[in-house]
Write a structure and sequence with these properties.
With 236 residues, the protein is of the alpha/beta class. It is 33% helix and 25% strand.
Length: 236
């Protein structure tokens, strides 16, 4: 059994740099590829962590995508057992929904490079305490969520009040992307160009931002995901 289970919803949204943090700490992981028809397990086995990646579907589209229901049951099980949970983009929305929040389309999609501001609570958070209070983040989402009851808000952006949160000591949701690589950003942009053109997102600005912002964002990601992986090693 792998140390970490990874729920993947589309082939282009992999762990990215999260895998570097897991590999460097000797943590094994297994993808569960719902987009490829793989069954969602009903139990976590001996896994110490559950990572839930992004995807183009919405939490509220469970009739269209039945695997979302099974995945949310797995998230609920992880929370009840104190297993570490890391939700990225759609994963953060699913985590928020399991915790009782409403997830719905935002006023406008937030796609591309835009600043992230950390909250005061983030300065003492186990994952974010050493991260600069403001940095350039990478965004790719249309849905937003309310802060779950009992959760701690960790980050925001100009368009989105809740960009990151922690619930208890074991569950984290990040709406923005710190795991992206150069090839991932280029693939997302190329694959979705008709949609991006339709909503008037400047794809040239996304690509030209890679050499300006990606290195510093990946440095932050190494810190945050490394701290999360360190927590996982304590459970192993």
């Amino acid at each position: 059994m792998s140390d970490i289970l990874v729920l993947q919803h589309v082939h282009t949204e992999s762990l990215g740099t999260i895998s570097d943090a897991l590999d460097s700490r000797g943590l094994s992981y297994r993808y569960i590829r719902s987009y490829d028809g793989e069954d969602i397990p009903s139990d976590l086995g001996n896994a110490v962590g559950l990572v839930v990646m992004g995807g183009p579907m919405g939490v509220y589209e469970q009739e269209k995508h039945p695997f979302l229901t099974a995945e949310m049951k797995l998230i609920e099980l992880a929370l009840s057992r104190g297993v570490l949970v890391l939700g990225v983009c759609l994963g953060s929305q699913m985590l928020a929904s399991v915790l009782g929040s409403t997830v719905a389309p935002g006023f406008d999609p937030e796609i591309g490079w835009a600043p992230i501001g950390l909250t005061e609570d983030a300065t003492v958070d186990r994952l974010l305490h050493s991260v600069d209070p403001e940095f350039m983040g990478f965004h790719w989402h249309g849905d937003i969520f309310d802060l779950p009851e009992g959760a701690v808000s960790l980050a925001s952006s100009e368009l989105t009040e809740h960009q990151a949160f922690r619930h208890g000591n074991n569950a984290y949701g990040f709406l923005f992307h710190m795991e992206v690589t150069d090839p991932m950003i280029r693939e997302w942009t190329a694959t979705n160009k008709p949609y991006l053109d339709a909503i008037e997102v400047d794809t040239n600005a996304i690509i030209s931002g890679i050499p300006k912002h990606l290195n510093s964002l990946q440095h932050i990601g190494r810190t945050v995901f490394g701290n999360w992986a360190d927590l996982a090693t304590r459970f192993k």
